[in-house]
Amino acid sequence: MTWEERWHPLREEWVIVAAHRQNRPWNGETVVHDEPDLPGYCADCYLCPGNTRVSGKRNEAYSGTFVFDNDHPCVGSEAPRDLAKPADPYRNRPANGVARVVCYSPKHNVALAELEAGEVENLLRVWQEQYVELGAREEVAHVLIFENKGEVVGVSNPHPHCQIYATNFVFKTIETEARASRAHTAGTGRVLFQDIIKSERQDGRRIIFENEFAVVFLPYFARYAYEVFAAPKKTHPSIASLSDVEVRDFAAALKYLLVKLDNLWRMPFPYVMTLHQAPTDGENYSGFHFHIEFHPPLRRPNLLKYLAGPEIGGGNFLSDTAPEEKAAELRARPDVHYKQSVRE
Questions:
Q1: Residue 217: its H or E element
Q2: Band of pLDDT at residue 103, cut at 50, 70 and 90
Q3: Which among 230, 218, 195, 229 is positioned nearest to 322, based on CA atoms?
Q4: How many CB atoms within 10 Å of residue 191?
Q5: How confident is the model at residue 27 (pLDDT cuts 50, 70, 90)?
Q6: Strands, DSSP E only, in 211-277?
Q7: Beta-strand relationship, 291-295 and 66-69
Q8: Which of 81, 116, 233, 319 is the most buried (most CB within 10 A)?
Q9: Integer CA distances (angstroms), 297 to 95, 158, 159, 275, 292, in order
Q10: What pLDDT sits at residue 328?
């Protein structure tokens, strides 16, 4: 079984090689069969309550969120240690860490955008707990929490869920953000993300939502048409230190944004959602500002933002749209989810 990390000397980053994941199960758009005591239940889904997964393990009969260790992890404590040493300049090491799955709800057909505000708050608290627990492990340098939503981004099961990769290295984007944040603070005495928030609020055109403790905006430098950031107004290195009132406001901000995205074209809006949090490797990250980034792959319904020569080959994005226009589009959409509007 191939299960290792290989160093990319030109990009100075680790590549996880987990060939065994090629055979992980793929559910696709499974059909929901409601039962009197389990509305939204899917008998064929390996994430629904009480069902048996491919590994043979049975899910709890959960009623809220459900967290379990991934049956097909890309990193793990059992990663082979007896790896063949490659020739210079290459190097490798075991892919140590923890991979988990977090089911948002027992309902197979209810996305994050459709959860009640209190359910979103509970999910944020689960994320807090997971970051603290996994980040405290000596072998974990970073806790990456993310959701792939929609077939267009390759999600293997439509049941609403996210994943957690707690790794022995820091993912490249977070490493770059941490370095940029540290340099900005050293040069100005200010927090870089606070300056970003200040600039966005002064301009105003790209602000999508704001309450007392949270803000949502489509950044000045957006690479995707509907790339949106959601952040607490106060600087926190991670989600773990948000107070109860900040969790409440942040949940409201997320709920508002997700409804707007689904209402854009009255369809489940695909995206990659990533929590940007400080590494847990023991370094000082006081200037790192926790936030969530949404990277939607669509420019229009059924039209992808293709990553081609400049993006993949050159490493720099070409934006096909103006952030100010796209922010205005999102603000103009209804505040009530289109499915709820139909039911009412």
A1: strand 214-217
A2: very high
A3: 218
A4: 18
A5: low
A6: 214-217, 228-232, 271-276
A7: unpaired
A8: 233
A9: 29, 17, 20, 17, 16
A10: 98
pLDDT of residue 300: 92
pLDDT of residue 42: 87
Assessment of whether the complete model's pTM goes beyond 0.90: yes
Domain that holds residue 10: 4-343
pLDDT at residue 252 in the model: 98
Q: How far, in Å, CA of 175 to CA of 277, rounded?
A: 10
Closest by CA position to 207, among listed 256, 145, 274, 152:
256
What is the reported pLDDT for 44? Answer: 86
Active site residues: 161
The total domain count for the chain is 1
State the CB neighbour count (10 A cutoff) for residue 232: 24
Q: How, if at all, do strands 142-149 and 66-69 pair?
A: unpaired
Distance CA 272, CA 258 (A): 12
219 closest CA partner among 330, 211, 227, 296: 227
- Which position has the token pair 């997700």? 258
Tokens of 147: 């959701």
> Residue 40: its pLDDT value, please?
80
CATH of the domain at 152: 3.30.428.10
